[in-house]
Amino acid sequence: MLDGFYVIDKPVGVTSHDIVSRVRRAINQKKVGHTGTLDPFATGVLPVAVGEGTKAIQFLDESEKEYRAVLRLGIATDTQDLTGQVLCERDWKGITPADLEALVPRFTGKLSQLPPMFSALKQGGVPLYKLARQGKEVEREPREVEIFSLTFDWIRLPEAAFTVRCSRGTYVRTLACDIGEALGCGAHLLELRRLKSGLFLEAEAITLEQLQEAQDKAALLLPLDRALDHLKSYELGEEAGRRIANGIAPQAQDLPPGALDELRQDDEVRLYVAGRLAAVARFDKVRGLRLARGFN
């Protein structure tokens, strides 16, 4: 049984769910799941958990993502990308590269974003994109997102490429659309590639073909430790390890002196027994550590 994460370089034209199915077949293992959905037209970093890795998804640090995108001015679509129906075409010829650059401060920092109808967000248990395909539009609540950095890599009007670092939940399609509206001409995305999702990087990504052809599929896996590297870790003795195996959380005396003093409310930590990841625990100021998830 394989346990850990594959960083798949998702190709254009397939869904994130398709990738899970293909990984499942490639490694002949049922317990597979992805984190951080990518649109079918998008490419790049898609973390795929296998085996015990599926238990770790809830603890991943996905607070920051990075994308490279190409927008096209003058045309707005219902999906905010090239796969949608054209809603309107407006003149972009009076716009200069300097106009685009001047918008960077306005679209950096905390922003309010209206989630697009063509998204996986659910309303009444139904994904918005399903309603959108039926020609329905429903009210959505704006959400606060954060753009940590936005830079234009090249501008060849009416197209421009930009790289953006942003918080989880940011729609880059909507960002491009909002930039187009700020310029008064509309815009949509031609290309979108994810370069980073939390701790998972483009440099670590492999193609589905590489996974399918690999003799040693375990060698391409990132271990659970790597995926949870942002959490503090503590080594426990054998007795505490036996208690964890029975669902009993460790006590202060099982940890290094002063360990609990380092923790804040709801901090999560990795617990090891004999060098093996045994569990993730959550700290409560009143009750101490409580097991959040055990690993086999």
From TrEMBL:
Residues 24-172 form the Pseudouridine synthase II N-terminal domain. GO terms for biological process: mRNA pseudouridine synthesis; tRNA pseudouridine synthesis. Residues 173-228 form the tRNA pseudouridylate synthase B C-terminal domain. InterPro entries: PsdUridine_synth_cat_dom_sf, PsdUridine_synth_N, tRNA_psdUridine_synth_TruB, TruB_C. One of its GO terms (molecular function) is RNA binding. The active site is at 39 (nucleophile). CDD domains: PseudoU_synth_EcTruB (cd02573). Responsible for synthesis of pseudouridine from uracil-55 in the psi GC loop of transfer RNAs. PANTHER family: PSEUDOURIDYLATE SYNTHASE TRUB1 (PTHR13767:SF2), TRNA-PSEUDOURIDINE SYNTHASE (PTHR13767). Belongs to the pseudouridine synthase TruB family. Type 1 subfamily. This is tRNA pseudouridine synthase B. The gene is truB.
